[in-house]
Amino acid sequence: MRRSWAAALLGIVCLCASAVFAADTALVRDRDWELGRKYLAEGKSQEALELLTRVAQKYPNEPDVHLFLALAALRTRDPQAAAAEVEKTLGLDPDHAEARTLRGWIELEVKRDYAAATADYAKVVELKPDLAEAHNNLGVAHKKAGDLEKAAGSFKRAIELRPEYSEARSNLGWVYAEQKKWREARDEFERALKANPNDEGALYGLAQAQREMRDYSGAEGTLRRLISRAPNFVYWLEWGQVKLVHYWWVLMLTAGLVYLNSRYQRSRRSIYGGADGKKA
Question: Residue 214's pLDDT is what?
Answer without folding.
Answer: 87
